Amino acid sequence: MSTSSAAGGTAGTDRGARLLLGLAALAVAFAAADTYVVVLALVDMMAGVGLSPDQLQRAAPIISGFLLGYVAMLPLIGRIADLRGRVPVLTASLVVFAIGSIVTAAAYDMPSMVAGRFLQGVGGGGLVPATLALVADLYPRERRGVPLGLVSAVQEIGSVVGPLYGAAVLAFADWRAIFLINLAVGLVLAAAIAALAARSGTTTGPRDRRIDPRRGRPDLVGLGLLLLLLLAGALVFQPPGSLRADIDYGRLFIPFVDGGGRWLTPVGAVTVVLALLVVARTLTARRPLVDLRAWGRSLREADVTGATYLAVALGGVILAFATADPKVQVFSDQGRWYLLGAAVASVAFVVHLRRASDPLLPRGALRDRPAWGSVVVSFLIGAALIAALIDVPLFARTTTYQDSQLLAALVLVRFLVALPVGAVVGGYLTRVLPAGVITAAGMVMAATGFVMMSRWGVDALESWTATVPLVVGGLGFGLALAPVNAAVLAHTADAVHGLASAMVVVARTVGMLVGISALTTIGLRRYYAEQADIPPIQDVCPAGTTRCAEYSDLLRAAGIAQEQTVFLGAAGCALLAAVLALVLLRGADTRAAGHGRDAATGVPAVG
After folding, report:
1. How would DSSP label each residue in 519-538?
2. What is the pTM of this model?
3. CA 222 to chain centre
4. Residue 426 vs residues 144, 149, 334, 478, 562: alpha-carbon distances, Å
5. Mind telling me which residue stretches traverse the membrane in this protein (predicted)?
6. What is the pLDDT of residues 342-367, one digit of tens each?
C-alpha cells in the first residue's frame, strides 16, 4: 500500500501545481472530444480517401486504428510516466497527438489516415494515466477523490462536447479543419505545460527532474532539417496540382517504377532521406530538439519486450471486436485468428514477466486486493457502460428517430451530461465513505437505469419520463469512476502509479469491447427468436405488395425486444460490478483521517 510523499502533499497546495493539473485535465478533455468528433466526420473522411458512403465497413480501421493506439500502447506509456516523469509524458503525448492530427488531415489514402489516427490514439491515450498519476503526486491519499472526480468529469464532458464541436466545424469548413485545430491546440497545450513546469519548478513523479528554462539555444541545424522535412512531407501528402501538372516540376512526382506509390517518387525519396537525417541529428546533437537517447533509455527500462507482447495481446482483442459489425456479428470474420494471436501473446507475456529481471509490470505491483480488484471492477463497468453508449442511440433510431441519426445520437446527451456530475460527486464522497460502497451504489443506480430502459416501448422516448433512467444511469456510472481510480492509487506504490492507472483505463476499454460483443450476442438471439414468430409477409401485407406498415411494425417490435434484452444484460453486468466492488474494494484506504481509520493508530479500518 502506498503513501503519498511529503513533497506530493505540499505540491498539492501549490497554485502552480494545480494549474498544471488543470492544463493536463483540459488536454484529456480535448483528446476525449476528438474521439467522438470522427462519428460525425466519418463519411466526409471516407470521401477524402476515395471511399463511398456504402463502403462503411472498409472504413472500420479509421476507428479501430485509434482504439489500437489508445489501448495497446497505454501500459507502456504508463510505465514510462513512472520512469521518466509525468510532465515529459504529458508534453510528448500532446506532440504525438498533434503529429497524428496533421497526418490525418493530410491523408490521401486509407493507410495514411489509419496511421494518423493510430498516432492520435497513442497521444490521446497517454494523457490519461499520466494525468491520473499526477493527481496522486500532487495530492495526499485522502484528498485525491475530488481531483480524480474532476479529471473523470472533464473526460466525459469531452464526449458531450465532441459531437457538438465537430458539427460546428463541419458547418463552416472541411473535415480536415477539425484535425488542423487539433494540431494547433495540441502544440499550444504542450508548450503551456512545459513552460509552466519550467517556470514554477514543479517536479512530479518518482523520477521527474526539474525542467531548466535556461537550457540554451535550440539546435538550429535540427530545426532547419525538421522544417525541410515538413515541407517535403506536405508535398508528398498534398502536392499542389499546379506543380504536378508542370512540365518540369511534375517529374518530381512521377514514381521511379510503374505503379509505384508517392513514396517511390523523387519527392518521396527526399522526404525519407530528410527523416533519416532528422533522426540522426537528434541522436548526435548536443542539445537536440528531442532527446531520443533519453527516450530510448526509458523504453529499455520500461521493458519494451514485455510491452510488445501485451500490445499484441490487447491489439488482437481490439481488432477482433472493434472491426465487427455489432448489428450482425460478435466479432469480425478474422476475429478467431486475432483472438488466437492475442492468446499466444498473452502466454508469452506471462512467461516474460516471470523471467524478466525488471518487467513491465513489477512483481507485486498489483498485489493488494483493492489494486487488482479495481482492474476487475473497471472491466465490468466498461462492459455495462457500452450498452448505454451504443444501444440507447440504436433504440432511438429504431423507434422515434428513424430518419435522423443526429437526433437519435442526441438522446444520449442526457446520459452523458449526468455522468460528469456523478464523477465529481463520487470523488467528493471518497473522502468520507468507503470506495467499494460508493462504487457499488453507483453501479446499482446504473443497473436500475438499465432495468427501466428495458421496459421502454415504441413511443417511450416521446415522454419526458424517458429522461429519468438516462440521468439515473449516467449519475451511477459517474459515481463509480473516481472511487475505482482512488482505490488503485491508494494501494500501489508511487513508482507504479502511471502503470496502475493505465491498467484501470485499459480494463475499462477492453471491457467495453468484450461487453458489446457479449450483449450483442444475447440481443441477437432474442431478435431471431422474435423474428421467427413473425408470420410470412404475404400473410400480413395485401396481395401484390412486398412491404407494408403492419409488417414493418412487427420487425420494429423484434428490434425493440433485442434492445430491451441488451439493457437487461447490461443491468446484470452492473450488478455484478456492484457486488465485486463491495468484496474486492473492501478496506480500500481512500478516506480522510477519522473516516475509516483508528484515531489513535491511524490504521485503516476494514469494513
Report:
1. HHHHHHHHHHHHHHTSPPHH
2. 0.83
3. 33
4. 11, 7, 41, 7, 32
5. 59-77, 89-108, 114-136, 148-172, 178-198, 219-237, 263-283, 304-324, 336-353, 374-395, 407-429, 436-458, 470-490, 502-524, 566-585
6. 899 999 999 998 888 888 888 888 89
